[in-house]
Write a structure and sequence with these properties.
Layout: H1 3-24, E1 29-31, E2 33-34, E3 40-46, E4 50-51, E5 54-58, E6 63-69, E7 78-81, E8 86-89, E9 95-100, E10 106-112, E11 118-124
Parallel strand pairs: 1-5, 3-6, 5-11
Antiparallel strand pairs: 2-3, 3-4, 6-9, 7-8, 7-10, 10-11
The structure holds copper (II) ion.
Copper (II) ion binds near residues 112 and 116.
């Protein structure tokens, strides 16, 4: 191998690791903040992706997702949460609030209109599974049983 071949190999490996990081890198997981009104609120910044991209909420309680679109790239001009029948336009540099009540538990994806940018909505059922989200609840947790 001469020098130019080595350079090409190194650049190739760097490109591959960048792709792997992009698709499989650590995800940012955030639990909703519960307002006095009982609405579970999460602010999501939209810029080349969703931040946070894993959102944890509780079932049967109203949710408000405030999507702030911090770019004009057309990829992100629409957000879709198909499992809850939601599809909304996101104007650039504005906050778009999406309110709904998660009536089913589980993990659901939300995506841009082209299904390229992805995030995950985790809806916990009443038993509070998936509690490892690192949420700091200001109020005491209610334990099951007597
Ligand atoms: Cu897109």
């Amino acid at each position: 191998m001469d020098t130019s071949e080595i350079v090409i190999v190194v650049l190739g490996l760097a490109a591959i690791s960048l792709v792997l990081w992009f698709f499989f890198g650590e995800k940012q997981r955030v639990a909703a903040t519960v307002a006095a009104s009982g609405v579970q609120e999460v602010k999501v910044t939209v810029k080349g992706g969703y931040s946070p991209d894993v959102i944890v909420v509780k079932q049967h309680q109203p949710v408000r997702l405030d999507f702030y679109r911090d770019e004009t790239a057309s990829c992100s001009d629409r957000v879709i949460i198909g499992d809850f029948g939601i599809a909304r336009d996101l104007p650039a540099f504005k906050t778009t609030s999406i309110e709904f009540i998660p009536d089913k538990s589980g993990e659901f994806s939300f995506t841009c209109g082209m299904n390229m940018m992805r995030g995950k909505l985790v809806v916990e059922d009443g038993s509070g599974s998936a509690r490892q989200a690192g949420a700091h609840h200001p109020t005491a947790e209610v334990e099951a049983g007597d």
